[in-house]
Amino acid sequence: MPFTLATWNINSVRLREPIVLKLLEEQAPDVLCLQECKSPVDKIPMAGFHALGYTHMVARGQKGYNGVAILSRIPMVEAGSEDFAGLGHARHIAGQLENGVTIHNFYVPAGGDVPDREVNVKFGQKLDYLTEMRDYFAKDTKKSILVGDLNIAPREDDVWSHKQLLKVVSHTPVEVEALAQVQEAAKWVDVTRQDIPEGQLFSWWSYRAKDWDAADKGRRLDHVWATPDISNAAHGSRVYRDARGWEKPSDHAPVFASFDL
Fold first, then answer.
1. How far is residue 143's CA from residue 134's CA, in Å, rounded to a whole number?
2. What integer pLDDT is reported at residue 208 of this predicted model?
3. What distance lies between CA 176 and its chain's CA centroid?
4. Any idea what the Cα angle at residue 218 is, between residues 153 and 179, rounded to 5°?
5. How far apart are CA 179 and CA 126, in angstroms?
């Protein structure tokens, strides 16, 4: 069952419903994983998604912040959610497709502004969250895909300036190492970089940039990973940069990958 998947931090699914519908109409992924939905589950605007054939959804929501959802036009059932680091936040949901593939959708904590857990509680929470993700996937994880806004740009070419961002939250060595440990736990394959191994690649551009496109000071915070047993079936990875320039956009662009399974 070949399928195409997209992951997108939408920064309010209700506020940006029009561009979610635009993406579904124009790009038609079989599965769309959303983060930072900022909505209780019962307030997610499903009518428009249903009308386009996305009749399956698993989600965890909160009023005003966090929130994750997986929309699908192929059959999918909920496969659980975890409250990593005990934060009480809606940051993880899993759905299982009929072919047995489990999709884990994550919104990892951003971590605040200061990369020091002694003075910044949020940074400590981020590191604890990643540690518990690592331990969770250290069990026998098979036939799985992990996507989402992981709020870390791990490689030097995942940021516009490695040197200038080394002490900036999302690219600090301690975060990159913590994410590497999560990846190692289940031998996750970074599908995006498997398909696009070289060159700068970004999925997030700050709202603060006067002209984000021209300045191009981006970071690759959004990821698609797969377990080794299915990673060879992945292809066609791309960042859909155009969506960052749509009306009332998210500061993230969707990231796509296809799987021939």
1. 17
2. 92
3. 16
4. 5
5. 10
